[in-house]
Amino acid sequence: MPKYHGELDAVLRALADPTRRAIVERLAKSPAVVSELAAPFSMALPSLMQHLRVLESAGLVTSHKIGRVRTVSLRPGALDVLHLWLGEMRTPAEQQADRLGIHLTRTASKET
Amino acid sequence: MPKYHGELDAVLRALADPTRRAIVERLAKSPAVVSELAAPFSMALPSLMQHLRVLESAGLVTSHKIGRVRTVSLRPGALDVLHLWLGEMRTPAEQQADRLGIHLTRTASKET
After folding, report:
1. What are A65's strand-pairing partners?
2. For labeling, which of B24, B54, B70, B102 is most exposed (least CB within 10 Å)?
3. Which of A9, A89, A98, A109 has the highest number of chain B CBs within 10 A, making it the mutation to test binding with B?
4. pLDDT at B2 over 60
5. For residue A89, which residues of chain B lie inside 8 Å, CB to CB?
6. Which fold has domain B5-111?
7. Contact A12 B16 (CB under 8 A)
8. Is the pLDDT of residue A92 over 80?
9. What ipTM was estimated for this complex?
10. Residue A53's pLDDT is what?
11. Which residue from B minimizes the CA distance to A93?
């Protein structure tokens, strides 16, 4: 079991919900204020805030408040644990294909 | 919303459970028969079979039966939708870093 297992668990549970995933997809483009995030969902603000809390406690988003406006951002490197885990899930055949791909890229670069 | 959204949804829901994730981690090493998969978990066989059904319907694993022995494998490319989605979630700053990394790798290859 990987060391980052607890973090990965929180990230996957957060992303298993389509609304939370849609929020992450929106924030990958740019930070947004809460009202902007709420707009595409026909959802009461308390429900949206609940989703944001789950995303924040999973380390996926951060937010800061200036005056009455709260801006939410995707945390840089937030999805790194998932990248890491996916890398470990490569089957032996896929790892071999990865190495071949790297070799071919390097060879092609040298030839040009 | 990406086109592969339904598939991604099933994959993330399947992986949000730690037992199912542990099964995927085991299968990434090699295919296994059901009794091998059950061994590390103090779990009744019907519960394990239920987890395997969820993984199978999410397209993460396949299984085949020879005689009385059922062998389960990780489906090649099973996690591709997740790779794809993660690629789309790269923030503009991360995408810029990716391009710089590719450029530096190519430059380094040419110099050696």
Report:
1. A70
2. B102
3. A89
4. no
5. 24-25, 28, 74, 79
6. Arc Repressor Mutant, subunit A (1.10.10)
7. yes
8. no
9. 0.80
10. 97
11. B76
B25 min Cα distance to partner chain A (Å): 6
DSSP per residue over A40-101, as a string?
A: TS---HHHHHHHHHHHHHTTSEEEEEETTEEEEEEPTTTTHHHHHHHHHT--HHHHHHHHHH
Q: Which chain A residue has its CA at the smallest distance from B60's CA?
A: A89
β partners of residue A73? A62
Kindly list the residues from chain A whose CB atom is less than 8 angstroms away from the CB atom of residue B92: 29-30
Q: Is the pLDDT of residue B93 over 80?
A: no
- Which tokens is B99 given? 């391009």
Exposure b/e, B24-41, CB count within 10 A at least 16 = b: bbbbbeebbebeebbeee
pLDDT of residue A55: 97
Is residue A77 within 8 A of residue A39, CB to CB? The reply is no
CA B63 to CA B2: how far, in whole Å? 29
Phi, psi of B49 (to 5 degrees): -60, -35
CB contact under 8 A, A74 and B82: no
Cβ neighbours of A110 in B, within 8 Å? 109-110, 112
